[in-house]
Each structure stands twice: as C-alpha cells, then as structure tokens.
Amino acid sequence: MKPALFDYTAPETVAEAVATLAADESARPLAGGQSLIPIMNFRLAQPGTLVDLGRVAGLDGITVTESEVRIGAMTRQRTLESHAGANAAHPLIAEVLAHVAHIAIRNRGTVGGSIAHADASAELPCLLLATGGSVCATGPEGERTVAADDLFSFHMTTTLAQTEILTEVRIPRLPPATGWAFEEYARRRGDYALAGVCALVTRGAGGVCTGARLAGCGIADRPVRLTAAEDALRGSTVCEDALMAAGEAAKGHATLPDDLQASQAYRADLLAALVRRAAVRAAERAGG
Amino acid sequence: MSTRQFGAPVQRNADPALLRGEGAFIDDIPLAGALHAAFVRSAHARARIRSIDTRAARANPDVVAVYTADDIGALDAPLPLLIPHPSITAGGKTQRPLARDEVFYAGQCIAMVVAVDRYTAEDACEAIAVDYEPLPVELDLEKAVADGAPLVHDDIPNNVAAHFIQESGDADAAFARAEHVTTVKVRLERSTAAPLECRAIAARWDRVTGELMVWDGTQAPIAVRGGLASVFGIDEDNVRVVAPNVGGGFGQKIMMFHPDEILVPLAAMELDRPVKYIEDRVENFIGASQERAQIHEITLAALKDGTVLGLRDSFLHDTGAFIPYGIAVAQVSSTSVAGPYRIPGIWVEFKAVYTPCVQVTPYRGCGRPQACFAIERAMDQLADELGIDRFELRRRNFIAPDEFPYRREGLLFADGLAVNYDSGEYAQALDRIVGEIDLPAFRAEQAEARAEGRYLGFGLGFYVEATGLGPYEGGRVKLHPITGKVYVTTGLTDQGQGHGTVFAQIVADQVGCAPADVVFVGGDTQAQPWGVATFASRAAVVSGNAIHKAALRARAQIVQAAANMLEVEQDEIELRDGGAWIRGGNRSVSLAEVATATNPLRYAFNESSKTATQFAPASRHDGPPLAEGTHPGIEESDYFSPPHATWAYGVHAAIVEFDPETCAIDIRRYVCVHDCGTIINPMIVDGQVMGGIGQGIGGAFYERCAYSEDGAPLAASFMDFLMPYATEVPDAELIHTETPSPLNPLGIKGVGEAGTIPVSQVLASALEDAFQPFGIAPVRESPLSPSMIHALLREARARPA
Ligand SMILES: Cc1cc2nc3c(=O)[nH]c(=O)nc-3n(C[C@H](O)[C@H](O)[C@H](O)COP(=O)(O)OP(=O)(O)OC[C@H]3O[C@@H](n4cnc5c(N)ncnc54)[C@H](O)[C@@H]3O)c2cc1C
C-alpha cells in the first residue's frame, strides 16, 4: 500500500497548474487528498505528477450573491458546512454535508475535490444535481461553466478534461416556497450511502406541489435526477398516495447491480423509502 | 494499612505512554540501515504456477535480494503443523514459506523482495511476472465436501482435512426417550480480527555473537523463538524474540509461522543487514489468519417440560487451504456447544474442510461464537415450539451450583483434557438479567410501538467459555536496590489488554508497594525464557497465579530480611507504602534498602549500600556472606500450571428496533451479566467485555470476509470489510457477578474473549422477536446485512398468508 513513484508540484496560479496538467497526461490535481491518496496507495491510480492545488491563489472562499452560493473549489467541506451565509442561502448544504464522511475528513476534504471525484455514492454531487448547480472549470482553452446535469458521466468520471481544473462550485439559492431535505442510509455513520436522496419541493396554493427536484446517490453508475419521482409529486398535495407513487416511481432509477453491501432489490426499496421520507420533510418545510 | 489493590479499578499503567505516542511498536524500533521486505502474492485462489520471472526486479539497483521457493534452501518445506491430532486426514497440510509450483489461496506468498525501502520493494513486486494456470475452486463448504468437487489438495479426498466425533453420555438413548425433537441449521461466515496494528517483524543478525534478534508483533514470542531456533538449527539461547508494544492480536498473532516470520530472519542472516516487514492492511486481509466460517446442523431431544436430554451437532468447519493450528477452533466449538446446559447425551461430529482461502486459526472467541449461535438458536426454537418462555427453558436446563465440578465424560477440550466445568451460578446470572430488563414492561412498550408502526424486539443469549488453559506460565518478582521498583516478569505478552496493570496489582498487595511502582516486563525471551503465550483468555489466570505465587515467596523473603534489619520478629513486620514497618511503630526500612541489604557487597555505591559492605555491622556473620541455600537480593520465581480450563460464563440481552423500510437495526439497549470469577480490576474487565461486545456487534452485523465464487477476496480493505465505529456500538450495561474458580489460588477465570461470544445470538434472537408481525423466517445466519434482512422480508411477504 505504497504509491508508485510520482512527481510533485505545487503551482501558485491556475494557469501554471493547467500547464503542468497539459504537459503530462497522467498528471492529476491534488486537493484534500481524502480520495486520491488512498487510491494511489492501492496503486489503483498511478499519476506521474501530482499537481497540488493547495497553494493556488484564489481557489478557496465562499461568496453569496443575489442568485447563488459560489464556493471556491479548494474550500474545505467543513468550512462550507459551518458557513452561515451559505446555509442561509441554501439550508440543504449543511444538512447534506453532515453525512459526508466524518469531521476529520471534512476538515481536509474539499468541495471541489468531492465534485471532481464524482463518486456515484457521494453526497455533494447529488446536492449539486438536486439544486441545479454548476461548476466553473479552467483548461488550456480557457474558462467554461458546466451545468450539473452535464457534469457526471460515470462513477468517478466527469465530463471535465484531464487538463481542466475545477475552480468553483455554484449552488443557486433556495427558491421561494421551497422546502428541502436529505435522507440517506449508510451501514455505518459517515459511510458512503447505500442510497441517499436530496429533495426540494416547492408548494403553491392549497399546498399543491408546483415543482420538485430530487436526486439520488448510491443507486446508479452516477448521481441521478429522480425524474420519475419528481413527476409523481408534481401537481399532488404530497399526500400519502403521491408519496407512495413517487417512491415506486423512483425504484426504476436504482440501476446499480447487486454488490457486496447491498442487493439491487434492497437498494430499490430503500430508495423508495428515502424518497418518501425526504419528500415529506421537504414538503413540510415548504409550508403551504 | 495500604488499601488492597486486588479488586480495585486501578488505572492502566501502560496508557499514559501509549496515549502520548511514546509506545514502541515494531515499526518504531530504530534499526540503522534496515532493509524492507514486500511480497508478491497470488492473484488466484488455486492455480499452477507456470513461471515466475524475477529478472526485472533483480535488475533494480535498489533491490537487494529477491527470493522465490528456489532461493530459500532448506526452508522450502511445509511449515510446522503446530497441534497435530489423530483426526487430521493423513498428511495434514501446511503452507510453504513461498509457493512452489502451485498456489492454494489468493494472497499466498510467492516471492519476497528485499529492498532499500518499502516503496522500492513494492515497485519490484509489481515488476515480477507470475504466469498462472488457474484451477477450478469450490468455496461453499457443503459443496466442497461433495463427491466430484474441485480439490484444494489433490491427495485429500472430498477436501476433508479432519473428521472427528465425540460423544458424552448416551445420545441415542436420549433421542429414544425424547418427546420433542427440534433441528436448526445455522451458518456463520468468515471473519478476521483486523487488529489496529497489522502484523510486523524485524530481524537483526549479529555475526560476531551469533545472536539472532527478532522483534515480532506476536502473541507468542517464546514459541517463535523455539521455532526459529529449530528452523535455523541454532540454540534457543542464541535467538532472542521480543514482542514490544503490540497493537492488538485477537488470536491472529498467536499463529506461527506466517511466512514472513521465518523469511525476514533468513534475509537478515543472509544479507547481514537488519530487515523489516511491516504488513499493510491489504496484506492483513488476504494473508493473515481468519476464522468463524462454520455450518451447524444441531438437533435437540427434549421432554415436553423442556428438559433437554440429548444433543446432536454435526458441523462443517472451514479451515482454509491449510490446517497449521490443527483442529483447535473446531474442537473448541464442538466442546462448547452444550453451553451451560446439563444435556446428558451429547454427540458431536465435525469435518474440517479445506477451502482455497487463507488459513483459519483462532480469532477472539475461537469457535465459541459459532457454538453459542448454534445451541442458543436451537434453544430459542425449542422454547417457541414447546410454548415455554425462553428464560424458563434455559433455567430448567442449567447445571445447578451443587452439580459442579460437572464433567462431560468423553469430550476432550482443546487442551487435551476432559471438559470439566469448575463452578457457576447460571440461574443467578439469568435472574439478574431478567431483573434488569423488566420483560413485562418491555412487552407493553413493544405492543404500543407496534400500534404506531414501530417494531421492537428482545433477545438473549447465554454462553460458557473455557478459559485459562495450560500448560503453564512463570512469574518472577524482583526488587530493585536503587529505585525500590518491583519488576514483574512473565513470558507472555500484552497486546493492549492491560496485563501489566493487573499483574502489578497482584504483586503490590504482597510486597506492599503502589501498583505504579511495579514495572511489568513481558514478551522478551531473554527476560523470561520459560512460558507459553497469550491466548485462550489465559494471561490473568495462568501468569497471574504464577506471579502471585512468586510474589508470596518474595514477600516472605522481604519480611525475613526486614526483621533482621529492624531486629524484630518476623510477625512484627508489616509491608506497606513501599517499605517494611514494625507493626504499630514508626521504624521502617524501604524496599530499596531491603533489596540492597540482601545482596552482600564489596563496594559501596550509595548511602544505603554501605550497610551491605563487608565492614558494616549488619554484615557481621560467622559463615559465608551468602548463607548456604540462599541467593542474593530479593528475586523469586514460580510457575503455575492449571489442572484444566476454568469455565467463565455470562448472559447478554438486547432490545432492538427494526425499521422495515430501511432494514436498519438500532440497538436500543444492551445488557450483559458476566462472571469471570474473582475480579482483579473491574475497570479492565469492563474494557475487555465492552470491547468484546463491540467486536461481537461487528460479527453480528458488519464484518464479513467475502470472497467471489472463484476465490478472490472481496473485502480486502476497510472500505469493504466494515468494522463498527463507536457510533454503531451502544453503551452496554455491564453487570459482574463473581463466582470464584476453585482451580487456582486467586479464584480467577479468563475474560478476554467473553464479550464477543453471544452477540450474534442475542441480536438474532431480538430481531426474530421484532420480526414477528411480518412472519419473517427465523434468523439462521451471521453476520446479517440489511440486504439479507430485506430478502427475508420479501420472502415473508411473498408467502401466502
Ligand atoms: C474514511 C473516508 C470516508 C469518506 N466518506 C465519504 C462519504 O460518506 N461521502 C463522500 O462524499 N465522501 C466521502 N469521503 C471522500 C471525501 O469526501 C473526499 O474528501 C472527497 O471525495 C474528495 O475530496 P478531496 O478534496 O479530498 O480530493 P482529492 O482526494 O484530493 O481528489 C479527488 C479527485 O478529484 C480530483 N480533483 C480534486 N480537486 C480537483 C479540482 N479542483 N479540479 C479537478 N480535479 C480535481 C483529483 O485529481 C482526484 O482525482 C470519504 C473519505 C474517507 C477517507
């Protein structure tokens, strides 16, 4: 469990970091190291060069604007979790982060690192999808913004190029009349979820659900929008029947085959239960 | 009077240093110029090796040596079968240090690289190409013993490594008289100890003195010394094995030899450089001993009133690809399976089965959790079938206090001696737990919860545990003249249990010092060359009593010497506060002074030593300075050899809440009543029991060494082998009763393994209770995952009502 030989650089600008990545196609950015270092120790990743983003200027910090929360990629997960402004703008952030690993790991792990790592069971990518967020990335061709819906392509794979650095994560403010909830089940406190659900439910007159955004983690080869469940909720009063229907509908999104920790059948039923629980809590918080 | 230390919750004396990071584990031992070893391990469960190409590795300038089976000379032979037994199929299999021509499990060592550092050694391992021809495998125990199954060893038919039947009383007669017969089939999976510190070894060869110095994170340094002396053909006195701080063992480190334990010393001798091997976590998961997998089919023969007359248990025991530790684990299972119950007619049969997996040797509990699961699941089922309360059924079958010693004639325990329970108050323990739980109140709460759609369940499990096995241990107590510290030395080792503290308590009471002034030395073959090892919950029982005997002798010597020095009769001497005092007076001599005065000196080196030199008044004597038949200083040793194992016991109960939507289980209450005889240190006993319960919860719900059908280990990291965190282990309520053992002077029984034993049963039993409204099939497996519970639930729902 010792990594293979690698070079290490600690650039001070994004441009320098991008250039280093471009010069060695096996080079990888290093953020908090909470995922990359273990997989290097298993020799599952053998980057020729580690580009430590720790000293790159301007990659951390949180700004709350009129419309969104902007989180520098190198912002530690724990910093975001305890940021009053960010959580006032979107209270789901802190609720989700409490389930990411353990405090010691959140103290090192970064927001950008978790998104870029794109583990299909990870909570933050799921949050980004549910909130309709986006990321900014800089590569040799310059800067671009990628919407969450276009970002996650497979377990531990994003549509960002190897030469691109994720610089910022953007989460839109909680829309009005919208409630939020996160539910997950992990075998042990702090583990990746066997299934997790972010729910945002917007209610209008008479408590009718006018909008629902749900996303799940741990259930497929990437984080997924639970569109079938959203459809089942929209237009309902989030009553018992609608919840049951939403849960049932969500099952189709649980496509991960049986693995060591869970069977597919279990995951599907678990997902249905979590959808019901998250949706009902979100609806309660939406008021109406 | 000093307060009595024995029985007091004395703080653990090793902790401050460990907590400050001042412990010295193998990797902390400074070894200038040490080389590092890493292993090429088999990627297949069962395969022929066509070729091994080490050229690229050897060409690496930072690689000092590469060893394959061809490079280790006489060491290329099967390792010892430590505990031979007549039931083992002819030619019991043990592994070679490095695989020759074929491999038997994924993880088996094929080559060892020694390099300037571990990074380079791993690089070189990657550069070694092994060409395999994979062979078919069968991991399922039941299929593995069937005709036509792929064989792990070509010359062992049906993969049966051992077949053993034992009978006590007349089981056939019991079954003939039975009014009710019930059968249960249970299955337990593979697990592993996963100690905090993986295995580790370092060796240094001194060409000039001819001494081989080995630091081994072992539970058995004396055995390792003997084994190494034998392997290398050198005298035991020229091999010194030290087990320094060891970060947990749980049985895994009792097993010798793991291949590195002889290959690292070999390399140190051949290369004339210190060599280190620090096993990493993956290697520990794939290359270090595992345990637990058994399938029992147990049948009870009972009368309608619940009296159990007979028991038949036939089980398969997974021994892995080899059987280096003999049948110990299976034998402990088979002799523990009757539990605390009288059951006059017992017939137990087991087959140890070779499977293409890493070898099985004892892991905390050693066969007992499996036996407990089998008998207690069967007792629960019997109670339900006869309509008798689960407590009541047990109460009707307990061996009564006046029936001890209770011999199960015909059953031989793992120490080769008859099963003979020494003492117990089983019904009393059960009453304690009934009192704690208040079952009627719980039943009311359960009914209310069900009405709200919440599902609570109650379960219990009783166990007995043979502890404190022989053959013997020694203890030495020595008073130090400068500091007055009391050194206590024994041969076995501490892996964090706190032996040093309880030994200090035992000694402190006899010599009249504070436990903090007792220095424990263990695990060094030079300090104590005689002894056995730490296993089978035996340290306190066997070493503790040896040390107690030695301390009594030391006490007598101190009293005699002090009486001389203070010129009073011996019965006027009282030992306390680090000195010998005249009873009721204020004159005293310190322990340091006693130690000094009892050693006739030629040269004074400090104030008190003047009194021991030749012209001092106290030195006047007619005969030789050291009287015939005496020895200098205060130093006494003694040994203790128990007549047979002493049987501890206990009963655990739990209340759980089951969530049928997530299949999650919440342990809401966990109560343990436990009896390990006379308690030396209640705080340490609490720690041992609580740790055991934590490990038991791991065994019940989380920890599983899963393998693919073709024998690839699937849980080879902590991402996949789940150990419960502190967040998954509830606060347990621990209640101790003390029924002394008549088998040793201190009246103690072992406690190290106790907590782990009944947990799977307790939780299975509680779940079954919670499951009732769903009609879920009884729980027959351990560990139990949410997916398994989900499958049971689906099955129940699919069944026509
Ligand atoms: C015991 C343990 C438990 C955990 N449990 C959970 C859990 O329950 N849920 C969960 O979500 N996570 C969990 N994690 C993972 C943790 O959240 C990581 O912090 C996170 O996945 C990666 O963030 P990092 O900053 O450590 O990134 P790193 O490990 O440094 O990098 C991860 C990957 O992202 C790439 N990368 C990082 N930053 C950038 C960037 N700015 N631009 C482009 N690529 C980048 C790296 O090259 C690498 O491939 C756990 C980790 C541990 C050790």
Overview of this structure, please?
The complex is a heterodimer of chains A (288) and B (801). Chain A is α+β, with helices and mostly antiparallel strands and 288 residues long. Helices cover 33% and strands 25% of the residues of chain A. In chain A, β12 and β13 (209-217) form a beta hairpin. Chain B folds into 3 domains: 31-135 and 197-247 and 252-287, Aldehyde oxidase/xanthine dehydrogenase, a/b hammerhead (Aldehyde Oxidoreductase, domain 3); 294-469 and 643-798, Aldehyde Oxidoreductase, domain 4, CATH 3.30.365.10; 470-640, Aldehyde oxidase/xanthine dehydrogenase, molybdopterin binding domain (Aldehyde Oxidoreductase, domain 4, 2-Layer Sandwich). Helix content of chain B is 27%, strand content 25%. In chain B, the strands form 7 sheets. Chain B has a 7-stranded mixed beta sheet, sandwiched between helices. In chain B, strands 7-15-14-13-8-29 form a 6-stranded mixed beta sheet, sandwiched between helices. In chain B, strands 18-26-27-28 form a 4-stranded mixed beta sheet, sandwiched between helices. The A-B interface holds A 1-5, 42-43, 185, 187-191, 194, 260-263, 265-266, 269-270, 273-274 and B 118-119, 122-123, 126, 280-282, 661-664, 702, 706, 714-715, 717, 720, 722, 724-725, 727-728, 785-787, 790-791, 794. Flavin-adenine dinucleotide binds next to β2, α7, α8 and β10 of chain A.
Rg of chain A, Cα atoms, Å: 19 Å
- Can you tell me the overall shape of chain B? globular
N-to-C span of chain A: 55 Å
CATH secondary-structure class of the largest domain in chain A: Alpha Beta
Strand content of chain B: 15-25%
Strand order of the largest sheet of chain B: 3-5-1-12-9-10-11
Under the CATH scheme, the architecture of the largest domain in chain A is 2-Layer Sandwich
- For the termini of chain B, the CA-CA separation is 72 Å
